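Lesson 9: reading folded outputs for more than one chain in a single document. The general rule is that every protein is listed as its sequence immediately followed by its structure tokens, and records are never interleaved. Here is the first one.
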Amino acid sequence: MGRRKVGSTPVELTELGFGASTIGNLYRVTPAADAAAAVDAAWEAGLRYLDTAPHYGLGLSERRLGAALRDRPRDEYVVSSKVGRLLVPNEAPRGVDSEGFVVRDDLRRQWDFSRDGVLRSIEDTLQRTGLDRLDIVYLHDPDDHWRQAADEAMPALAELRDQGMIGAIGAGMNQSAMLARFLRETAADVVMLAGRYTLLDQSALDDVLPAAAELGKSVVAAGVFNSGLLSRDRPTQGMKYDYQEASPALVTRALAIAEVCAAHGTTLPAAAVAFPYSHPEVINVTLGMRTAEQVGRNVELYRQHIPEGLWDDLRAQGFIRSDVPAANEPGRGARCL
């Protein structure tokens, strides 16, 4: 599996990443054995970049990921986690977490992008994972906390990076405009962009991708299925788009894209995984992986050959923007297009 460098840092990511939110019991229970088997399968397939966060299962994802990696050679893999949500005792538990994870709510999340909050969060993550260091640390969803995130959290991360305690730093969000600000106005090396450079939404071409190209920084693409609508060969009504039920118009558009994919001998999910690599600054696509079977499917999607003519057809029919880099552009970053 190919590897790409994170900006000007020494950190290298495999082109496909393991998203560990699902092994934190996102939406439903994942048995511990299934979570461990998923990490094992990812390792066997050559994935060496794994992403987690305190938010995922109130620490469950971090604990499970750390346990699964415990006997692996530490220099052979890259782990990212996130700061901004401290886990603190919940004084009024109701039994189950209210933010989408099927776990007990003995803890709760507390927004904190202060310097002390960042340091405490990293220390807590290291304890939960059992790791000696984190390779990448992202600010997690700082949408409503720009000032503190930019003025306190990012300088704290930059200091740790400059001391060699972290390899690279950045921010992860579901919007692109503020991520562009982090690239332009702070010491961020990389951003994790969720859902804004996909077959259904290329708005990142207006801000974060030009910023990364101009500054020599990197983008990790997440949410490439837009919460599920692009994850099947034939989308249906009731599927999710950006965490909500997709509108009939979006389902119709996704179906039309699927038909173009089929005409080129490929599938909508395979094209959805391949598409972000069309931009040179996208160095990785990270997908959620709950079981060994899901790992196998995602790796198969990543490895599928996508005919170059597909992108030309999608562009000609108005399904992707005209400024999406063309397959024959010199220096573009696509892996399989």
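And here is the second record, again sequence then tokens.
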Amino acid sequence: MSHTAHIPSHRKPRRSASKLALRAGVAGGVLSTIAVAGAAGPAHAEPVTETIEMPTLGSLGTDLASAVSASAEASQQEALDQSLMAQENAALQKAAQEAKKAKAEADRKAAAERAEKARAEAEAKAERERAEAAERAARAEARAQLATTSASTSDDDGSSDSSRSTTSRSDGSDSSDSSNGGSSASEEETTQAPASGSAAAIVSFARAQVGDAYVSGGTGPNSWDCSGLVQAAYRAAGIDLPRISYQQSSMGTSVSLSDLQPGDILYWGSRSGSYHVAVYVGGGMYVGAQNSSTGVVERSLDWDPPSGAVRIL
């Protein structure tokens, strides 16, 4: 190490080239101004006593620092604004996602509620249909029993009347009594006997459906088409029939419309090409699923005369 290393230097610190140039420029400008003023003034002009205040390097540094500070503040403010904008965009995206999720959940709940409501309505409808079917079956059974009882009573009354008529004639009743007895017998022969057995079951079932709706292709229990009703009525008596009207009218034997019995099948059109069928229920009446306007009705043969009839029983 040099023995002069710790001795402070007596040299003046070097000034930077920029500072030297600045000071030289300022000094040169001042001297030029003084020279011009001296040349233009009178020979005996008084010496200038005013001094010109020159800008100092300290004030220039302060202005530069202020500018740098202002620029830094502007940059910081811009960065803050960008950060706030990014936060707002993120908040908006999050809100949109939450709203979408909430809507999806609401739609799911609504769909579940609709499905539950539809299931409840289907169960209620099925329960009503079961109740109606049970009620119709009970009515059909009651009618069948009533028809059987009426047939039995009619047979008993006919036997008693016949017996009384025979006794009267054997006792030598007058001709007027014989004439009256003959008239009564004739009336009984022309009066159609009530349905019994399978025919009674067919008639009772058909009448129990009066008021039901007509639906093309309907086979019950609350809506029918013509052949669906006839097929179901015969099934109630334990007899299987084809499903289509022309197939039904092609079965059994053809009978005259003047010799109808309860349970006969009436048809409209040709026997092998019928387009409508119904069940004859006696007393000049029939039950059929007519159309969507009337549904299942009981009508007189005169209301819509059939083309023919067949007997299955």
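What the second record shows: Confidence is low (pLDDT under 50) at residues 153-191.
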